[in-house]
Amino acid sequence: MKIVRNHVRPDQRRRIGARAAALVGAAAVAFATLAGGAPASAAPSSDPCEFAVFIGVRGTGAQGGSGPTHGGRVWTSGGMGDQIAPLASKVSTEAYPTYFEALNYPATAPDYLQSVASGSTALINELNYLSTLCGGCGPAVIIAGHSQGANVISDALGNGQWPQGPTLTAQAQKMISAVVFYGDPQYWPTDAWNAPYSPGGLWGPAEEHAGRG
């Protein structure tokens, strides 16, 4: 069955994804200038299949959200943390209709590795779910994480706990239009996707911890 929503053709959605990616990149570089509260003109979408989905992944110790959905994997209110919420607010006013959700995972420090593993598994499952929920033409997905949240995202995009855990489907991978990391513990200063003049991650450059270089 062919599903058409809002008369958006696949080629249009690809162009939209590119624009969303450019917007998120610009917003990430200008993060320090963003306001902390949600703007009054924000009009988030209530349908994850309408156009785009923004997934926020909070850092260690940040407060969780409310309104669990999609099997409890994500929250529909709050739970992004003080660093990611302003970016979501910016996207809500300047991007196309976007559905916002925050990943529900422990974000704890004493059991850091287990917390990251739990988060990456939840994120993989959520992305795979969205890829099937919206038919053959999934939404453009923007993922942003701070600190441990960035670690969760990078692990998920690297297929998490493979071969013991789930992996991203080809369709789920195609939906991802932009990824933003703040304070990534696995930061590597020479990676081509870094924003200009990026400082070290919260633990400093990755070579100090992983023996790279």
What does the secondary structure layout of this molecule look like, with pairings?
Layout: H1 10-29, E1 52-57, E2 65-69, E3 74-78, H2 81-94, E4 98-103, H3 112-133, E5 140-146, H4 148-157, H5 170-175, E6 176-182, H6 207-210
Parallel strand pairs: 1-4, 1-5, 5-6
Antiparallel strand pairs: 2-3, 3-4
Helix pairs in contact: 1-2, 3-4
Number of discrete helical segments? 6
**Helical proportion, percent range:** 25-40%
Rg, rounded, reads 16 Å
Could you tell me the mean pLDDT?
76
Profile the largest sheet. Answer: 6 strands, mixed
Please explain how this structure is put together.
This protein is α/β, with parallel strands linked by helices and 213 residues long. The protein is 36% helix and 17% strand. It has 6 helices and 6 strands. The protein has a 6-stranded mixed β-sheet with strand order 2-3-4-1-5-6, with helices on both faces. A hairpin with a 4-residue loop joins strand 2 and strand 3. The longest helix is centred in the middle third of the chain and has 22 residues. It is globular, with a radius of gyration of 16 Å. The relative contact order is 0.17.
